Amino acid sequence: MEVDQNTWPAKGAGLPPFPAAFSHGVTPYDLDVLSALLVIGQLTTPPIASGATLSEFWAWVRYATAIASTSDLRITKPFADLDSHQKTILSDDFGMGVPVTWLIGALDLVAWCDGRYFRERMSALLAIAPPPAKKSGPEKSPDFVFEDRAGFLHVVECKGTQGTPKGRETQFNNTDKNGKPTGGCVQKKSFAIAPPLAGQRLVCGLVLDHEHGKGSSSIKVVDPEFDETPLPEKIEIELWRDPLVRATLAKALRAAGLLNSASVVAAPSGETAIARRLTQPITVRREAARAGTVERRRAVARAELTAALDRPRIQVGDTELVGRSLTFTFPVPLIIEGEAFQAVSVRQGVRPDFLERLADEGFVDAPVMEGAPWLRESALGLGLHDQGNRGLLKVGQEFVAELTLDP
What is the domain count for the chain? Predict the structure, then answer.
């Protein structure tokens, strides 16, 4: 674990200072691997999507056997020998999940949100043009926006490679064919969060070595200086919180199999996050059509919740949940410290009383803190815990995910 304090702004620069919980230089970090897999599953689950996505199962099925049985984090040789496309997917997923698992503890994070969704939802709340649809280059949205327990918002860009530390530096600072700067250091600058909520602006990079490699796996965290693109001034503080609450709850609902409810929470004003109420006289018909779409989507979501509440509950510890319980058998046994595991079981769901209240009063078109402030209390909190062959992730007061390795 390497944190380069020299990249932080000087004291008195009016920018967030070096966090007290960070240590400059290289320090060891004990990673809870099973919890990190659950984090990858949540981070790669979009708040808005139609149908099932691989991200809901990918981390557990694909990556449980990718991690080598070594004292430090390494991937197995077969996964290191994948073709470049598959290696890139693995590196990207671990490049998000492992640093974010560390950040959850280091910054006491309580909510998470995809960077692009954050910008799109804010554009709807502020009635401004949506962000450019760039998936690479300097105009790409940063990967994530996080909220910590003190209420600060942190912008984070993540990178992952199975190459070398030098390759990681290239991911941090690179130029395109026209000589313009690109990479993580400029991607995290695509928008600014204003005081008093402005938190850290970080780029995190993971280097993954394989089980027979001569190097080592490592995380590096920097705060490079770039001028962010400002959003309009004088934004109400509570508007900044809306995308965090909605994305955190939507990801949890999707993981529980409640896809329609997740989409309505994440996109309350229409089919997409950029949808918003139309107030100009010329748009009366369009506004009526939009309102009709909103009501139809809510009706479908409420029917989904009613059906889900009638299904048998799943159990995680002493907690009864509405959700999904799945077991995947490994193609070959997973050996950890001499013990063989044949399968991985995942149980994840949401408390039924929350779903009942969500159906009754949670599908609101207004900003969360105006229309349903209780949703924020339900969403806040990210808790991770590993014990033996069991990993646990808790999101807010309502969602629990458990991963166990089965002999």
Answer: 1
